[in-house]
Write a structure and sequence with these properties.
single chain; 187 residues; alpha/beta; YbaK protein; five-stranded mixed sheet; 5 helices; 10 strands; globular; ProX/PRXD1
């Protein structure tokens, strides 16, 4: 299906904060403070990777799948960034990172730790993880692209950012690091 609307791509933040969520504005402020350039596509709420296909095409950048996972005690979290077309297999990732049991974190946990709601999780949420509760896991296939697409903590916009800016400037500023994983995504 995808998002049924004409998309335009703009450079940088919106001209006005009116009608924008505080979550979204905080991301623009953070990126601007770090001097990280970005392009933006505004759109209807995108809840699935299928919804993001049109956005990805308009931006000329792959919108990555972001999964917020937790250990069995819900005491530590993982944000997994992976290609949108690759299927996710919990057991495969658990083996790769040596974690016995992984599950999806609850919506309340995502809001508390990343400042995002389901459908809007992205690497930008790491700026809210002041306690260092989240480990960033990145499928190596994402690192091959010059640009990535991600929501600014609200799924009514998607930002196109240079991959190297995300994994150097942004990650460093949030005091996180990336752990690279290789997910086969096959049966």
């Amino acid at each position: 299906m995808g998002i049924d609307m004409k998309l335009t791509v703009e450079k940088g933040r919106p001209e006005s904060d009116e009608g924008r969520s505080r979550k979204e504005i905080v991301v623009y402020d953070y990126l601007d403070k770090l001097g990280i350039p970005y392009e933006r596509a505004d759109h209807a709420e995108a809840h699935t990777m299928e919804d993001c296909e049109e956005v990805s095409s308009a931006l000329g950048a792959k919108v990555c799948k972001n999964l917020f996972l937790t250990n069995s005690k819900h005491s530590f979290y993982y944000l997994l960034m992976m290609p949108g077309n690759k299927p996710f297999k919990t057991a495969e990732l658990s083996r790769e990172i040596g974690c016995g049991h992984l599950s999806f974190a609850e919506a309340e946990e995502m809001e508390r730790v990343l400042g995002c709601t389901p459908g809007s999780a992205s690497v930008f949420g790491l700026m809210h993880d002041k306690e260092g509760l989240v480990e960033l896991l990145v499928d190596r296939d994402l690192l091959k692209d010059e640009y990535l697409g991600a929501h600014p903590c609200h799924n009514i916009a998607t930002l196109k950012v240079k991959t190297k800016d995300i994994f150097t400037k942004f990650i460093k500023a949030t005091k996180h690091y990336k752990t690279e994983v290789t997910l086969r995504g096959q049966s």
